[in-house]
Amino acid sequence: MKVLQTILLTITVAVLAFAEGPKKAENFTLQDINGKKHSLVDYKDAEAIVVMFIATQCPVSNAYNERMAALHKDYQEKGIVFLGINSNKQESIEEIKGHAAEHGLTFPILKDHKNVIADKFSASFTPEIFVLSGGLDILYHGRIDDSQREARVTTKDLRKALDEILTGRPVTTTETKAFGCTIKRVS
Amino acid sequence: MQFIFWIACGLILLTGKGQPAVVSRQQTSAAIEVRPIDANTLNILLHRRNGRVLMLNVWATWCVPCVEEFPDLVRLDASHRTKGVDVVTLSIDYEDEIESKVKPFLRRMKAGMPAYVNAFAKQEDFITALSPEWSGAIPATFVFDSSGSLRETLVGKQSFKSFVTAAEKVLRKRK
Predict the structure, then answer these.
(1) Cβ contact (<8 Å) for A124 and B155?
(2) Distance from CA of B125 to the nearest CA of A (A)
(3) Residue B111, Cβ neighbours under 10 Å: how many?
């Protein structure tokens, strides 16, 4: 009897999870470091929107500067939009501007004062990635790849997800984990 | 094949063989010992508790809030070691940074607690082994009770007071 109950419960949970579909992101509007406003709904026609919570002082995020610049370069012309978000309370707009120029980060970087957007996304570390559809479904959440040291990378998770989206396939791995720096929130 | 692997893990757990096992306290600050930790060693560390609570701090030398809270962990070790709490540190610096970065830092902190460096092949396996709910953000401190069950998770920089509160909460449940 207990076995039957367990099987029924498992099936119910699986059906509910399937019926629930992907989680949705809430639209937001933020200014980038040059004062231009960006809303997620502005990009409803994009193939995908890559939202990257990044930092200027986090060594893990900094280890990915070149890889983020390369991803932007490789995928922007394929219709994918990249938005960096800096939610760290101690990193100023001037500091973010200098950091972006120094490291060749040419995608818009939005300043999330008082970590309101990090809270909406439940983002907790940098670099933390969310890939959204034009309709704001969360298609992928997690890391860029599986090693801070580029030479040790074995899975390029973000590239894989973007390639799947571009070819119209469902994203096979929708959640990954990695070490990162805690987002420094206002208290 | 998987079956044989888990049998082997079980035997290791029961017999305590298959070193490197759990690291003991540092004998002198001049001879700091830092061991790599893999799934087997972590399993032993979490479950061979001898009635003691474990506060496992995950940190890195490059992580500013980790470095800032570290003196409070050393203080916690001093104040709660005799009350049944084992404070253990686990760095996610790379194994090839043990000599150049991890040991000098621990020496500077006069850290007498057992110290490890992550040696899991996949960081995701390490994160999930500690807590499936954990995002991987550091610093993170996990408080396990004397049966090896996770009771408290502290993510982000903590104060001495918050470390003590978490430790004593789990200690009280032990009684």
Answers:
(1) yes
(2) 9
(3) 21
Integer Cα distance of A4 and B88 in angstroms? 43
Domains of chain B: 26-174 (3.40.30.10)
Interchain contact, A125 vs B136, CB within 8 Å = yes
CATH number, position A117? 3.40.30.10
B138 and A182 within 8 Å at the Cβ level: the answer is yes
A84: tokens are 């960096």
pLDDT (tens digit per residue) in B12-54: 444 444 444 465 777 555 678 999 999 999 999 999 999 999 9
Domain membership of residue A1 (yes or no) is no
The reply to whether A187 falls in a domain is: no
Instruction: Examine residue A166 and state whether it is found in any structural domain, yes or no.
Output: yes
Please report whether residue A61 resides in a domain: yes
Domain, as residue range, for A151 = 22-182
* Cβ separation B123–A183 shorter than 8 A: no
ipTM over 0.95: no
The DSSP secondary structure of B51-71, one letter per residue, reads T-EEEEEEE-TT-HHHHHHHH
**Domains in chain A: how many in total?**
1
| Residues A110-131 pLDDT 10s | 999 999 999 999 999 999 999 9
Residues within 8 A of A (CB atoms), B 113-172 only: 122-124, 127-128, 134-139, 155-157
Q: Which residues pair with A125 in a beta bridge?
A: A182
Q: Is the pLDDT of residue B62 over 70?
A: yes
